[in-house]
Design a protein that fits this description.
The complex is a heterotetramer, with two copies of chain A (349 residues) and two copies of chain B (598 residues).
Chain A: H1 36-50, E1 58-62, H2 66-69, E2 79-82, H3 88-96, E3 103-109, H4 110-115, H5 118-126, E4 132-137, E5 140-141, E6 147-148, E7 157-158, E8 162-163, H6 171-178, E9 182-187, H7 191-203, E10 208-213, H8 229-235, E11 236-238, E12 240-245, E13 260-264, E14 270-275, H9 285-298, E15 301-308, H10 315-318, H11 331-334, H12 340-347
Parallel strand pairs in A: 1-2, 1-3, 3-4, 4-10, 9-10, 11-15
Antiparallel strand pairs in A: 5-6, 7-8, 9-15, 12-14, 13-14
Chain B: E1 5-6, E2 8-16, H1 21-34, E3 39-44, E4 53-61, E5 72-77, H2 83-89, E6 90-99, E7 112-116, H3 118-124, H4 133-137, H5 139-150, H6 153-163, H7 168-188, E8 195-196, E9 207-210, H8 211-221, E10 226-229, H9 236-249, E11 260-263, H10 267-279, E12 284-288, H11 290-295, H12 297-306, E13 310-318, E14 324-328, H13 333-337, E15 347-349, H14 354-371, E16 374-380, H15 381-385, E17 387-390, H16 408-413, E18 445-447, H17 461-477, E19 486-488, E20 495-500, H18 504-518, E21 522-527, E22 529-530, H19 535-541, E23 545-550, H20 556-564, E24 572-576, H21 585-596
Helix pairs in contact in B: 1-5, 1-6, 5-7, 6-7, 8-9, 8-14, 10-12, 18-21
Classes of the chains: A alpha/beta (349), B alpha/beta (598).
The complex binds thiamine diphosphate (2 copies), iron/sulfur cluster (SF4) (2 copies) and magnesium ion (MG) (2 copies).
Chain lengths: 349, 598, 598, 349
């Protein structure tokens, strides 16, 4: 799908809008070798390239943490805002009003989102801000050297920390209860799924929460740890096989009737979900909650598109903005005309 | 009755909050204003919703001295809980009105006492719906007072008309009670006190407004596009003013919006959103008060260092901590100036009256975008929430100034060779781009972490100091944008009075009294922003003694002046006091007299 | 080879962070220390986990001047990314060691160059597990350097023993490589540079520690009972030190705990918990750095006004904003002093070395409980995270002082007649009770809102000022508790040098140089807390010129001194600079020479 | 139940520990007449009186708001801490370590908890702090004059605010997902249930979340509003009839087998749940989630004990503190002995 076109007389691969994959690159990563976050950055590059998104049409946001550094490592041609610890959602909310045609991609960590950022996380969801909100979830604070985050599992034993005894926070469940309109969980060790989910999320209108288990190879990657590569590889259970079909494309996959489910997004693109083991309807909140509770009990890493409501208006739509990007308006749009001043003074009595 | 005292006294009305007395009080205030008499109204209210004592003080003064006074010539008491206090507060020779439902003894004989026939009059009002009875009952004191001191009934009607936005039913309901009360007073009230009002023409062309409304409207004329806010007294009504007036002033034929206002989940999010919007090229603001400002600290530091334009209104109330949420103060000054860990020097505007609230409302955006910096505007509860006479708002006399923003065609010309934090013009102010710019070289990555001229992350020592020194350069550059102090001179003056914000009227009155009562001539300087304008040190130098008056405990303005002008330390005397009430001329007068007349 | 230079030079080691060079560097540092030579080690590291350039600088100085220097006599380069920079950094005549995996050209001929046979030696080490190879490889430079300058192998072994807490396997693994490298150097390295170490006895009885560990242990001796914290560099290791040493120092036979440490969800919660615990009568603290401190602003104001004892350590890094998270600064001073909206003046302690980190660790609780106030302790990254020579920690020389707490029997005696905020002793400090007190009159309701002497809510104006003035009285009372400045005098000195915190050694060295090189004698005063002790103005007065040196941009200490002593403005000169690196004597020397020698 | 004893020779009613109900009073309320918060204060007084709790054994906490003022209106003999907006949970967490035998009662508002306080709310739950955490939920900010809070229902129309368009936050669901060990919803218009729930909560070890719909008569009490008296009275559906049996008492109620469920709390007291319309097991998370989702759809105000796990250790237990209250320890307990200093110095190398 989305096979990039060849440009006439050139051997360099380009996508529909004529860009090479290198046009989506960022700076060289300074994260640890093998860090899950790097693999996610690569999939963001691939997804934007394949989805033919102009880098200039993307704004990147992040908080603070190893994960939050990663927006420098993709899409150098996109604006970015590396904000404060836990505060990415508010910054993104304000910034996206600047130009309503932009795609927002936010990258956060589990600490950044579920510890210090819990309040903003919940409220950005409530407002249905049109943002692809990725949590690179490794169960620890990488950048401050390996303390527990709130997603650490009960019983996790870390070198300098001892044993965690607090209830872990489950990001997809939290998102579901808060009313998120797009919720997925994935695994940095499953790049293809990450990429397809990203493309779907970029087409979704409203908030898209992507909880991506992204191992911290330096501080939390022992084989028994829930957020490790080993555990993920062994326990990942995809609820479906997911692929994204861009707006203009025909569905070419050949699935038998009843074998797959199709969700149409607001921009006309489609998500195809091929049934794997279980019956699953990601447009049902009840199904979503059930499967999340079940996976808790069955000790598996459940991945895939957990919930989607493609129709809910997003925050910016609700505000009924003018067609032109707000940040291109000028004085004549913004300053009331001179003759209004008398009217106002009269109102003042 | 002693000689008539005309247009020169204070009226205080004691009621229970939540009882709807605001309509009555505003009606009195507005009708006096419409009679052309200089007047002010101040609400002293508790931080709860219903049932506690609250006071409203109206001062009429033919010479335009309408600052608060501690003395009350006329006191109206509608609240049995505050009865003894209210009674005690009447000046000897003054007038005391109280509602007939209070059955307490009058223990003074040096004042004139009148009983208000509230029950009798209200009993007759069969057409007043039960749930409105208490509210409308307040009109009894409006009517009796009007008859007693001579308020024009026509103007009262106009005031009601304004208040109820022309809705005939409530206007009639209330006006009828007023008329009944006037009638009663005509027949039954034997006037024995000397206080009267008489029409003047001092208010011609003036308006009446509160500072928060003025700031809201000013911000709209400044082209505000994004506001993130969180409710807090006394900041809320600024945000709510914007919500109220945006649809009126920025209405478009297609019904679409050029702005968004979002009530955030808290103040961290409110300023975070505003900073996001500022980064994105919108004129962005937030409004808050002390506790909210404290929560904005980390973001304030980010905006300072990453150079994001954003306007933050702090309508000051009494702190530290929750403090007195419904009382006024000028206590956030030093905190705001240094807000954010590390080396920060924030730019502050200090409006002193409703017109400046309006003007700084629009001007703050020009300054913020020009300097690519947060701009704090420090108003206060007295200025923000009380009614002030003002000149009509003036349409901005300068075009909107968006500062140094590069768009596609600009980058084209530069061949894409630019850097977000380069000091191209040697004024400390770099160029910026905003998201949505389609030029492939337009993007940069904004961060609060150390960065170089191109916005790239670096921990290089020399780069860090270079960048931070450039920001300081900008701060000195800001002097050009800060409104000059308002200086009033008197020939032969030896002392200087320095003040800021809402104490303006008290200072003016005190200067008059100093001269007339003690033959002390003074110059005054009202500082309107930080960094201090050039005239500030000049003024200080030109007087041996400069008294710095401010409504806080620690002498915050004084301290900042010292920091800037250590060599002028000998010329400065700190006079700081804050008990939550607006400053009086008496305080200023007494403070100076003590020091000048030993 | 020119004349031998013994025990007086700096070594800088450039590596990639995350490569495990810390063990090697600490081994060198510790063995030099054990040889009795005054030494310091400073880590200049990036704010990431792995893969970026990092430097470690060791200075040996026989006279005990171990402040940082900009010059590097010996440079060891293990990192191809920093190769050219490292090469450039070597002083002419200096020595440059580099790993054989770097294939870059040596472009200088004014230095001595040695290639480190890392690959060769490591190839032989079959018994080193693969994942440890990179770590252990660093021991090559330890061995070669040891042989080259003459570090005692025995001491190296002791150092490894300490580092690996006696675990034989890693000790042997590493030591073997060191021995091999020494052997190689003996046979192959022809020493052409002049740098040598020789055992001394200057360190007898001294220990080596970092300030955060010292502060942690000091806090434990202060009886810390509750700590709420949130990870942040460089504050984290203070909290982690407490977690590490509490079980050792407060072990009980029943295995039960007399304390609790909680990693909070953020800094607002961290200080909130600590304040809750302080209210509850526990010795409570938190530790953080700039961004965390900013988030604590609102709570700091609450603790100030509601008078809750709590200790807040701020291990300073470079701000504003995220700034340079792994670099040192003294930039949070004014912000901390004024933290919280409204009138606040916070009490600050300023430790200048590891011993003071320990001492202020316990003393801060006494001060906080005595004054019923937050106490801020401002350390910095250099002091907190680098290794410093220190005198052995001294057991507290005063018993724990819990301040004015009333228990059941006290209230019994008073017949329950007490009020939380009464100024019984006329020192501004009230009495308090804590939850769990069973006396029926013990309870009070703590709030950040206006309250009277009994803790009851009030919005009365006079009460507000009375309460806030009493708190100011406490602030002046605090002078008695603040450690006096450390003053060092020189006969005939004309100038004064004022400083604070970790610049102590640089000041000492600069004073020595000033005298020996420029014949300028100076006195010095290291300020150790705010409010300023009585000696502070006396010192200032006694010199016409006092240079105030501090590691920030804006001269924050200078500003606070001005605010307190405006009449001494003429005596003060601000010298402020901060590029994230620890202060050098050179900076101080040059700054003074420029001004003194025109 | 818990009928107070008469003291010999006295007509004044006293409880088991010899206190009169007036001993549990607070200051006169300054809230609006009819405010739901006042009715809850009264039930706190009644519950503590009936549960024979010594006022000196209680510490009260609150944030900022009309609701957060209410701790002054009950239990004057208890210590109280009226903290900052949204920060009650952290203050309570620290304070409860002072004396582990104290009962903590926290009062917050919907704004205080679900807007500014969302993060601390979630984390105090995760830690299972032993605190009765009452949210006096009226869907608005009372004290700042009637703005929407995050629990306002979609479509709520307020005088100065317009129409709410954001997803409301559902407190019991949020508590459940975060792992709360005691969750109830009640209604200020149902004082008896409020009181029984309070007594049960006071006996629970760990966090007890009580979401009590408490109408704001001044700003949000129109008949259609979800948080109004009228709506609550009309739509309240109790999941069971609940009564609390103190530790030492016999169960005297006469229920038929199968008609009721009994939950034993850690202190030996019991909660009796008489079945009403539906089968319901409050110790099942799945049941709890199901019934909450159902009540969403059926437009009812579901009240009662929604979930309880009586056995999970609370935060303070986890810390294994000494028997004596920490705040009564003295120097000999807190300062390491003089001879330790050499040992420490030796560790320093
Ligand atoms: C206000 C504030 N507090 C603390 C920090 C220190 N800090 C930096 S990153 C981080 C945690 C990051 O953890 P997470 O979000 O999980 O990201 P990861 O590094 O694991 O990808 C913390 C606590 C900070 N920068 N700001
Ligand atoms: C930091 C901060 N921001 C804002 C406020 C102003 N404020 C006081 S109460 C309140 C909302 C209270 O709403 P809720 O918690 O629902 O309580 P209610 O009054 O409805 O009982 C707000 C925003 C404050 N005190 N502190
Ligand atoms: S520390 Fe962990 S999270 Fe951070 S870059 Fe390394 S592997 Fe990734
Ligand atoms: S405003 Fe509402 S919440 Fe506040 S006291 Fe009045 S009724 Fe209660
Ligand atoms: Mg993480
Ligand atoms: Mg509410």
């Amino acid at each position: 799908m989305a096979e990039p076109l060849q440009m006439a007389g050139s051997k360099i691969k380009v996508n529909r809008i004529g860009l090479q994959k290198t046009d989506y690159r960022g700076n060289l990563t300074t994260l640890c070798q093998g860090c899950g976050h790097n693999s996610i950055s690569n999939q963001i590059i691939a997804a934007c390239y394949e989805a033919n998104i102009l880098p200039e049409d993307v704004v990147k946001f992040s908080g603070i943490g190893c994960s939050s550094k990663s927006p420098s490592y993709f899409l150098s041609r996109s604006f970015g805002f590396n904000s404060l610890h836990g505060r990415m959602p508010s910054v993104a909310t304000g910034a996206l009003f600047g130009n309503k045609y932009l795609h927002g991609i936010g990258v956060s960590g589990d600490g950044d989102t579920t510890n210090i950022g819990m309040g903003q996380f919940k409220h950005v969801i409530r407002r249905n801000v049109p943002l692809v909100y990725i949590i690179e979830n490794n169960g620890v604070y990488g950048l401050t050297k390996g303390q527990f985050s709130a997603t650490a599992e009960v019983g996790l034993n870390l070198k300098y920390q001892g044993v965690n005894s607090y209830m872990p926070i489950d990001i997809p469940k939290e998102a579901l209860i808060a009313g998120a309109s797009f919720i997925a969980r994935s695994f940095a060790g499953d790049p293809k799924q990450v990429k397809e989910l990203l493309k779907a999320a970029l087409s979704h209108r409203g908030i898209a929460i992507l909880d991506i288990i992204s191992p911290c190879v330096t501080f939390n990657n022992s084989d028994e740890a829930y957020h490790s590569y080993a555990w993920g590889r062994e326990h990942e259970v995809a609820i479906h096989d997911l692929s994204y079909v861009p707006p203009s494309e025909e569905i070419t996959v050949d699935y038998a009737e009843g074998e797959f489910k199709e969700v149409t997004l607001h921009d006309g693109s489609k998500i195809l979900l091929k049934k794997l083991e279980r019956e699953y309807d990601p447009t049902s909140r009840v199904d979503a909650m059930r499967v999340l509770e079940e996976s808790d009990n069955s000790e598996s890493l459940l991945t895939g598109l957990i919930y989607i409501d493609p129709d809910r208006p997003d925050l910016i739509e609700q505000h009924n903005l003018v067609d032109e990007p707000l940040n291109r308006l000028n004085e004549s749009d913004l300053r009331p005309a001179a003759d209004t001043i008398d009217m106002i003074n009269n109102l003042m009595f | 009755m002693s000689e008539k005292i005309v247009n020169d006294f204070s009226i205080t009305i004691g009621t229970v909050n939540g009882s709807g007395s605001q309509t009555a009080n505003n009606t009195i205030l507005r009708s006096l204003f419409k009679m052309g008499i200089p007047v002010s109204g101040k609400n002293i209210f508790p931080s709860n919703i219903q049932g506690l004592s609250t006071w409203y003080t109206i001062r009429v003064n033919k010479d335009g001295f309408t600052a608060r006074r501690d003395a009350h010539e006329i006191v109206i008491c509608m609240n049995s809980n505050s009865f003894s206090q209210d009674l005690a507060n009447v000046l000897p020779g003054g007038a005391f009105f109280y509602t007939d439902s209070i059955k307490l003894d009058i223990t003074r004989d040096d004042i004139e006492v009148y009983r208000l026939p509230v029950k009798d009059i209200m009993r007759e009002q069969k057409d007043v719906p039960k749930q409105l009875k208490d509210l409308v009952a307040n009109m009894v004191y409006v009517g009796v007072l009007a008859q007693s001191i001579g308020i024009d009934l026509e103007q009262i009607r106009t005031a009601l008309d304004y208040h109820f936005k022309g809705k005939q039913k409530p206007i009639d309901l209330n006006f009828k009670v007023i008329e009944k009360s006037v009638e009663w007073a005509k027949g039954n009230l034997e006037k024995t006190d000397p206080y009267f009002v008489k029409p003047m023409n001092k208010n011609d062309g003036l308006i009446m407004t509160d500072g928060n409304t003025a700031a809201a409207i000013g911000s709209i004329y400044g082209g505000v596009q994004f506001m993130g806010w969180y409710p807090i007294t006394p900041g809320s009504s600024l945000a709510e003013g914007i919500i109220e007036y945006l649809p009126i002033l920025r209405k478009r034929e297609d019904g679409k919006h050029t702005y968004a206002v979002i009530q955030a989940e808290d103040e961290l999010a409110a300023i975070g959103m505003a900073i996001g919007a500022g980064f994105s090229g919108l004129r962005a603001m937030t409004a808050t008060s002390g506790p909210g400002l404290s929560l904005m600290t980390e973001f304030a530091g980010l905006a300072y260092y990453a150079e994001v334009p954003v306007v933050i209104w702090d309508v000051q109330r009494v702190g530290p901590s929750t403090g007195l949420p419904t009382r006024t103060s000028q206590g956030d000054l030093t905190f705001t100036h240094y807000i954010g860990h590390g080396d920060t020097e924030q730019i502050i505007l200090l409006p002193g009256n409703a017109n400046e609230c309006f003007e700084f409302g629009w001007r703050a955006f020009d300054i913020a975008e020009n300097l690519q910096s947060p701009v704090f505007v420090l108003s206060d509860l007295d200025l923000g929430m009380n009614q002030w006479m003002a000149k009509p708002f003036e349409y901005p006399n300068e075009p909107m100034d968006r500062g140094k923003v590069l768009w596609e065609e600009d980058l084209e010309k530069l061949n894409g060779d630019w850097g977000r934090y380069r000091d191209v013009d040697n004024d400390g102010i770099p160029y910026r781009t905003v998201p949505g710019n389609k030029h492939p070289a337009s993007a940069y990555f904004l961060r609060g972490t150390g960065h170089d001229e191109n916005g790239n992350l670096t921990e290089d020592s020399a780069t860090w100091t270079r960048m931070l020194d450039r920001i300081k350069k900008k701060y000195y550059k800001a002097v050009e944008f800060i409104p000059a102090p308002i200086i009033e001179k008197k020939k032969g003056a030896k002392i200087g009075i320095i003040a800021m914000g809402s104490t303006e009227l008290a200072v003016r009155e005190a200067r008059h009294q100093l001269e007339t009562e003690a033959n002390i001539k003074s110059d005054s300087m009202r500082i309107r922003g930080i960094p201090f304008a050039e005239d500030v040190p000049k003024f200080i130098e030109s007087h041996e003694q400069n008294y710095v008056f401010e409504m806080n405990r620690d002498g915050q303005l004084y301290q900042l002046l010292l920091g800037e002008y250590p060599h002028l330390a000998d010329h400065l005397i700190s006079e700081a006091f804050n008990d939550g009430l607006p400053a009086t001329a008496q305080w200023i007068l007494d403070s100076i007299l003590i020091k000048e007349k030993i």
